[in-house]
Amino acid sequence: MTRPDVTRSDASAPAVGRVVGTEDSTPLQFSVALAPEQYLQLDDVVVTVRPVPGIGPVMTAGVVTEVRARHEGATFGSDVFLIADGVLPAQVQEIAEVTTTRVEPECYVPPTPGSIATRATGEERARALYFDQMDLKVPVGLGRDGAPIYVNLEFLDGTRGGHVSISGISGVATKTSFALFLLYSIFRSGVLGRRSVNAKALVFSVKGEDLLFLDHANTKLDEDLMSAYATVGLPAGPFSSAGFFAPPTPDDLSGRPFVSGRTSGVSAFWWTLAEFCAEELLPYVFADAEDERNQYTMVIHQVAARLRREAMPVGDGGVVIGGQVLRTYDDLIEFVSDRLTDEDERRDWAGPVTGTGTINAFLRRLRSSLRPLRSIVRGDLTDAPGRRVSTDAHQVTVVDLHNLPERAQRFVVGVVLAAETRKKEAAGPGGLLFTMIDELNKYAPREGSSPIKEVLLDIAERGRSLGIILIGAQQTASEVERRIVSNSSVKVVGRLDPAEAGRPEYGFLPPSQRQRATLAKPGTMFVSQPEIPVPLAVEFPFPAWATRLSESAGPPPSSSSANGSAPRDPFARLPAAPADEDDDAPF
């Protein structure tokens, strides 16, 4: 590798100060005394150079992690009034603490006191933050200096790492907004090149219908917002290829999607009884984290295997078992209950050594799933196209879950993720699937085990080799399974609760950033990635797509079809030509 040229003239950039001589300077941290009429703020990038015999000039660059000001010459707190009145001579001195990000060449010597320090800009800033070594850069927003901040795609696409963990207080940390901006940047920045043809995103939405308008332009999209997107090298507009799924309306045999704000372009999803039995989906009904530690889990797998062997499909998704036709989830639960309470058949369905108490525990939990699941597991609806959640037709697929009870939400997330994982295993690692899940602590809590948690752990530990990348958002990373958080190459933090900020899961944040995270405004995130030793503060633009019905500027042209589902555009996922990067041509 060619060694970067670190020689520089003291006049090449305005000096902001000099390395302090009254405090220890180390290769990993040093302080800068600011010159008169100069300032440094938190997150500024600072560079200083010192000569080393036999090596030449050595550049030490870092990020400002603390700034303090004091009166030199004052002894008592009340001296500030005398100094202000001109009675006591004193001087205001500001000191900036700089945490080292890069030393080039790698000769780890401390900056010498008195060395000139400058604010890094342009190529020098890129070198200090390792942006010059990123072959594939994904813009994630702007730094405090107004210049773009990037994340290395190789730590997002599985090449050298994968997965993203986003933490912060609900409603303030803008976790979902940042995750969507990250996806938008990946798809629209051109960083994927031809791989964008096979790059998809699967988004689970649990908070209202806000994500059902990603393909609508935002009414707040004006010149200033377009300029903000242009600064980070992105076109400003909605997601150009998006599909939407929602559960069917309860007690409606037409299979109409259960949504109110968006009346077209949404497909209903459900699972037929035949699929439920043939694919052994029963374990996902018992998705509470503590279930796998109970004895009745043996009964779950026994019954699931029996249903797979015995159930024969009939028209419109129903099944026939033992000569009895079952059309609804209620029918299936009643049938299983009858078999497990029958003395003659209990052994065949639950196992020969299963006790009555274990069976009763299983039946209590099975019957409690009737209300949550009866609308999405059924055999009384017409087998219509779009019935199963599929990521084939669009680049971004949104699965709306907010109208489902929590237990049904767990079922859907577990079954869909398991199906997508199997599909990726069969297809090979050629494509990418970014899976965005909010409230990850609900699906993969730190304690206990469940089928959904096992699927998420599998994705976290070997998903990047399959091309499956998890983007998980949660209020508290301390309540999420450790292995999922630790396998996330990119960690992002928004506004944090003070008690949560003190947890060891946020040890990657310097003390000053932990404190700042408790004050962060919406739209400000701290992004940590493997190549940069210090997390970077990022401000990302307001969404250019509608985040609710009231922000929608209207549907895109030809967004709906006669049957109410989004039409498939065979060219929707093709990457734009480099010359057309700024237009709204879909990928």
Describe this structure as you would to a colleague.
The protein is α/β, with parallel strands linked by helices. It has three domains: 15-129, no CATH class; 137-268 and 388-551, 3-Layer(aba) Sandwich (Rossmann fold), CATH 3.40.50.300; 273-374, no CATH class. It has helices spanning 79-84, 122-128, 175-188, 223-231, 273-278, 297-310, 329-341, 346-350, 356-367, 370-373, 406-427, 440-443, 451-466, 482-486, 498-501, 511-517; strands spanning 15-19, 29-34, 45-52, 56-72, 91-104, 116-119, 137-142, 148-152, 164-167, 199-205, 242-246, 266-268, 271-272, 312-313, 319-321, 324-326, 377-378, 396-400, 432-437, 468-474, 490-493, 524-529, 532-539. The radius of gyration is 29 Å and the shape is elongated. It starts with 14 loop residues before the first strand and ends in a 48-residue tail after the last strand.
